[in-house]
Please model this.
Amino acid sequence: MSTSAFEPATRRRVVGCALCAAGCAAASAVYQAFGHGVTSRAMTWAFLVPLLGGGVHLGAWGLTNGRSVAPALARPWQNLLFAGLATVTAGLYYRGIVDIAGVDGGWERWFLAGGGALTLAGTLGLWRIKPEGSC
Model:
């Protein structure tokens, strides 16, 4: 798939999601390398949140609506989406650190609930924007 079908701003955000996912995977590998053989599934799979949540979502949105919607209308909703994805990723990393440390945590519920609410708000907002010239 060529990225020339996307607006430049959407293309930058999709590439940013891919780079963020690569950074999450690298950070997880480094942290677990020093975890004395203890691993965490939450931290191992945290890279999927920005990759699938951001990249795939914005890729689909860019191919369907991206060219016909003014960037000023989409930016607040994209910011909510990315804030939610960052919060969910932080919650997964928190869960991973708690698992590796072997202590009991409880804050990941709040991270996941808050991040899920922000992601849902951003997603619904993006998909409710009507392209120019439609009813």
Remarks:
- The CA atoms of residues 18 and 58 lie 11 Å apart.
- The chain has a mean pLDDT of 83.
